[in-house]
Amino acid sequence: MSVVTRRAFLRSSGLGLGGLGLGVLAGGGLAGCATAIKGDFAPKKGPRVVVIGGGWGGATAAKYVRLSDPNIEVVLIEPNREFISCPFSNLVLAGVRTIDSLTMGYDGLRKHGVRIIHETASAIEPDQKRVRLGEGYLQYDRLIVSPGVDFQFEQIEGLAQNQDKVLHAWKAGPQTVQLAQQLAAMPDGGVFVLSIPLAAYRCPPGPYERTSMVAWYLKTNKPRSKLIVLDANQNIISKAALFRTAWQAYPNIDYRGASRVVGVDPGSKEVRTEFDKIRYDVVNVIPPQRAGAIAVQADLVGGDKRWCEVNQVTYESLKQPGIHVIGDATIGMPVPKSGNVANAMGKITAASVVNLINGKEPPVLAPGNTCYSWVSDREAIAVVNSYRIDNGKVVQIEQKLTPAQSPLVAQRAIGWTQSIWADVLA
Amino acid sequence: MSAVRLAVAVAAALVLAGGVAHAAGPLDERGALKSVTCSACHGQAGNSRSSAMPIIAGQDAAYIKKQIEDYAAGKRLSPEMEPYAKQVLNLGVDDVAAYFASRRREPTPIQSPADAVARGRSAAAQCAICHGPQGQGDAAKLIPSLAGQAPGYLREQMLLFKQDRRSPGDPTVTAVKALLKTIPDETLGDLAAYYSSLR
Fewer CB atoms inside 10 Å of the end CB: C or N, chain A? Predict the structure, then answer.
């Protein structure tokens, strides 16, 4: 069988190029039973929850449904074989961490009895309560959709056709490593341009952490270089005072608010704002974002065609009963699009789904947000938000910021990653 | 051929790991649901596996309750814990404290160098007066157990005590602050190594 044939099949079946699940095969020994995937290829024997997306929200939800009620079968559909943490990936750009140190497998979930299919869900059929995988489908009692974000490349002229040259590095993975390589290869005296989209987007402080870490890298390794930040927002939208203080150590930052990038041309190495043209040596465009494609396809997004509105206690979609949406794809709550919030939503939704399947009332719980940002190779800052439920809506109890950047906060940031990665995956 | 291989993969995924036996899940316990946000930092059932985040499993309930109340009131200063302490008070601190107190403590997996542990042991005589010979604490006096606690957390707390940045003005911790002011910073790391090694 040639690669071309296999890819042709994947294209025709809408499965993407995520691979054929060979790692799963290794433990199976079921080749004799296999037939082509068609129709209901795994008939449901008892209550079943299907989870689409194995990121911070979906992986957590899958694990906690199993922990809460082992009688419920959980199938997680996730094309990637490894989980790569977006939090801490700005440290990879600066050469402070390796991408390997942020990369983990899904075996921990398997130990909880989560069944994982490393494929891309091609469609949701809410009326039949099933998820399509190519020509086959899986039935569910409750579906949890944790699709993350997809990029609206078309909103910036020249971006869609130049995705290989103009990197986002906003989903940790190969692009993170490539952007780090571009930065390392940039000559001293070069200009790095970072473009930030209008909110809402994944990880509000992320672009400013990236600004800090790129500036730290340049100051340390290429002291004649400059970082121009073109922010579509009027001003820094998260931890503003703390970032401003941190940036006093980085005179190489030229931060420009209200500067929305509308075009990019890798030929002339220029980005265009509504008013200006800026030449770059390395560019990093974080594109505008919306909920992951499956959420749009399944009509889970609201009037804005970008994000999903949900019941703020159960995370059930306001548009499609029986389907719960969690993580960055949601909108309407006073919470940031963060990994910590997605993790909390995963646990709360797991509890809701388990209760609903068992004919009980869902619990009334609100998420929390713990969000660390690095400002140098050894110092970090944090913002923390807690919430409660008031009349069925998520309401903030309090927001607190660290008083200043410090190495102790950075140590706690490391502690947080170790704990929460285990909460999501172990 | 491709379709068959895909089918095999999927079938294997659906058969593997079936029938795993479980005790009652973490969300079934009294107080567990109310502490659903805690595990992001404190680990499953309060057993943090990291160096910086404290293990709260098996800690005395009254001690946990006092810490939550002090965090919420801004007496024990922590930008991370103050918002979460208010969330816990909102949900019911007694349930949350009872839940973590009833969990079995799993000592930190962080291993400290043997020489640091040895130095810490020989420097710990004064600590043992309050925290007990095995670092077990004294629940009646709201003195916490230190045995098997995460070393990074222990060291940070000793530094905060020493600098009077933990619970300023709290008379119950005046003595520990006075003691820690007499101990050099490098010894604090050794003490943390020693107490985290106790079982």
Answer: N
